[in-house]
Specification:
The structure holds two protein chains of two kinds. Chain A is of the alpha/beta class. Chain A folds into two domains: about 200 residues, 3-Layer(aba) Sandwich (Rossmann fold), CATH 3.40.50.300; about 230 residues, Rossmann fold. In chain A, the strands form four sheets. Chain A has a six-stranded mixed β-sheet with strand order 6-7-8-3-9-10, with helices on both faces. In chain A, strands 16-17-18-13-19-20 form a six-stranded mixed β-sheet, with helices on both faces. Chain A has a four-stranded antiparallel β-sheet with strand order 2-1-4-5, covered by helices on one side. By secondary structure, chain B is mainly α. Chain B is globular. The two termini of chain B are about 20 Å apart. The chains are: A alpha/beta, B mainly alpha.
Amino acid sequence: MTLNKSKELLLEMKNIHIDGFSDERWHKILKGVDLTLHRGEILGLIGESGAGKSTMGKAAMGYTQPGCKIIKGEINFNGIDLAKLTEFEKRKIWGTKISYVAQSAAASFNPAHRLMDQTISAANRLKINPTDVLKKDAVQLYESLQLPDAENIGDRYPHQVSGGQLQRIMTAMAMSPRPELIIFDEPTTALDVTTQVEVLSAMRSIVDKFNTAAIYITHDLAVVAQMADRIKVLRYGEEVEEAETRDMLSNPKEEYTKSLWSVRSLIKPEETNEDYMLSIKNIDAAYGSSKVLHKVSIDIPKGKTVAIVGESGSGKSTTARVITGLLPQLKGEIIFDGKKLSPKLEQRSKEELRRIQIIFQMPDTAMNPRQTVDEIIGRPIEFYQGIKGKEREAKVIELLKMIELDETFLDRLPSELSGGQKQRICIARALAANPDLIICDEVTSALDQIVQEGILKLLQKLQKELGVTYIFITHDIATVKAISDEIVVMYQGEVVEQGLKSKILNPPYPDYTELLLSSVPEMDPDWLTNLLNKRSS
Amino acid sequence: MLRLSLGLVTVFAFSVIIFSTFSFLPGDFATEILGQSATKSAVKALRAELGLDKPPVTRYFDWLGNVFQGDFGSSFSGRSKVQGDQGDRSREVVGLIVPRLKNTLFLTGVAAMLAIPLSLILGISAALYRNSYYDRSATGVSLVTVSSPEFFTAYIFILLLATLFPVFPTISNVDEASTLAERFYRTALPVFTLTLITMGHMMRMTRSAIINILSSEYIEMAKLSGASRYEVIVKHALPNAWAPISQVIAINLAYMLIGSVVVEYVFNYQGIGRLMVGSVYNRDLPVVQACALIFASTYVILNLIADLIGIISNPRLLYPK
């Protein structure tokens, strides 16, 4: 980023208005946003979900998703107004002059074609270079993106390579026709932190190498800080502020921008307890014939929060399934409040079931879309405590107040709630059983930063009031810092270490913990550069 | 391999069901030809001659063993009724079935060659111009053709193309001597009928399979990399739609074969369907059993082929991780 960027204007979007059609009516998605981008410059576009950042990114190509339309505005790319072009004319620009890197590489590659054919398809359309030249170039791109076996990886099908590799191949695909602009739409959001570092550095170096301009869309400020020269913050389809990356980080002007990284400032003093709510000892578990947990032993102190961290596939969610009895273990035992729990769900008593509750990652899929809030929260009250009628209703309202909502929500369906409200209802449903232990499985991963903060605060408040014990499963270290007393680090189905937060988060680390912690992006724009220097030395 | 053996098991199970169903049917061939007034001893003699006096299990295994050797037994009808008549006039089932099976395969084959490409083209284009007037009328008409029974469609064709505008014959007589052109001309109406009753379903399923895939992320990605409409459908959507489409085609081809029973009857076409209906009338067990077994095996074979296409068109199954 020390490169001297030219001041030649590449893209200028003026007063963009876009409407989207949903729920039988038109909504405003973008309300007059401007954007300028110079050649070779990287602009970070950041905001919560629904801020219109993805719509803005696609609009930079003159594309809108089905059900959306551009109402007003100019999109000047190299002096051509994309908003005025026909589909046919735009297709000559898409993929060749402007290319797009999507969030979920796994879903964005066609499963029926080999990776190499997909990588060079856009460049092939230009008919400048013959196929074999393009293939050689693609192999070089794969090499500079540090893909393993660059020579042959293109012969594979999308399902045969990992998510991080796919994301890099998609970057190669975007780069293959040497576009003037690349739109990165949340390219690392679906990846683990350790993979994210590799992909980020690969993307940055290749964009630098060809001096390509880019728009980098994300909701993670720390990630965008590593990539962008300038950052623009969007909210509700409007611009909040825009500044050079360093200025924005050291001195955000708007309240809203400041709140975007507020979760990272939430800190809880750690405490421990010698009295264990739950102990699992030497648990082995498997899905069919593939073994996923090896000798897992974890102790959960009463009234405290234990965070289980690790990347996807490390066995953290499987551990939760074993504790709840959804997946009976092969070996080992679970001691709950001094008593042994039977491995199978069917053999546990109603009382045992009541005392352990779980909250899932996706509140959308965890609730019956046809039940009202009253039914969702009321059912466990009736089922576990046998309370009916007026008393039951009073109890539901009490729970709603506890999660900082009120009785106006009683008759609403899940579809009439926001993401944060849905997760609150799920918390209330867990509380309705009056449990001693709540397992929170990635409960904040699907939520925006500000909403996350609200949920985490609520969970802490409830712990203080009710003394419930939490098992907090997450891959997000910022969340861990904010909420946990103790931390368990898992890797490939085994426990790497367990201990107090202060012990785990401070050196000396075992190798894996070190890798995991150092991969968490920090708000320092030099973080990635420093990290890579340190790792290579 | 597993599928293949499962298919064999299915055919075997079918053979048991077919055999036992017909064995337990009331009445038998002996009383049928000898009439109500036949003496007990005459009936008994005929039953012995036809092997009907043996227990069903023995008969089943005898039959099955012969079937494995390509011998479906002899037809009951046409055998010498009078003692001392010169020679045995009974006919081999195989000799009876093969020419008719050829006729039926010709009929359904022509109909399939007409119906499959047509419904693919219609389905794909309807998906491409979704919610246009073209799409709506195509899906609407196809619903009508799917819901009307074969014989109704057949009579409509007879009314339109044979009675009001006499273009094609109502009776589809063909024999060994008929030339190919003659065959096409005479079977036109039954072919149209079979095409129409199966096309609607295939077209609608093709359309919805393609539409389903058009909403996936890799299609948006393909659009954003500059692929044309045609390229998006043919290169990106269709390869992923083969599995569901081939399943529907298999079911419809099998349905076509079964539908030919009715259609052949209406148009008096000498096919296996008509033979089967006739043999049921006469309690001619070996023929009925053979026909039923052929229908069942066709179902199984068509589904096997569809599964195979599904595997070949899906790299996930073809190239493991």
